[in-house]
Amino acid sequence: MAPVSLAAALAQQNAEALCGVVLAQLVRPGAPVMYGAFTSNVDMRSGAPAFGTPENAKANVASGQLARRYRLPYRTSNASASNVADAQGAYETQMSLWGAILGHGNLIYHAAGWQEGGLTASYEKLIIDVEMLQLMAEFLKPIVVDEAELGFEAIKGVPTGGHFFGEPHTMERYEHAFYQPLISNWQNYENWQLAGARDATQRATEVWKQALREYEQPAMDPAVLEALDAYVERASRRDRPGEP
What is the pTM of this model? Predict the structure, then answer.
């Protein structure tokens, strides 16, 4: 909780973050630390937390500036308050994600699947968020500018009114020239209808179901697996007072 102004909330957040950093150094000098930020506003009618708002995005950017002032890596989040994997969930997540990117976040926490202000998660939202994260990662890649990429020979070889689809320059690159979407559908309306008229959430459902069907557990040393099982059992007993 903080006063109802972004400046006051950021000042309080900064004090709390630095307090955590100092405490960590007192307990273990030299311990690696990050500047963690999670400032956003609330719905003033209900008190429910809101994410992906202009205030949240600005706080993500400002927090990155504070982290750089202290020369610390920056932990931020892209979150949403939507209750379902819908348009609200997408635009709120994208809004907070842009704030995280513009704030030069080093670690984006709660990066995929977050719904209802963090009270729930969904497979569909996770897949949609992965798409947005991949889009952002692709956006951040620098544009390669060299002789081959400029394609002067292709430009000279295509006459006015022609097209580049059959050019060697295109044929060499068409498979990997552009980002291939995870769930986006680029068909025209008629073909989209013929293919089942599935929206993004429905396509996301297909993706996570296929991922679960095709999942193969990674190989693990039996001794390591046994040690992990033993650790989980010990921890479970600690959480169940009275049991041997």
Answer: 0.83
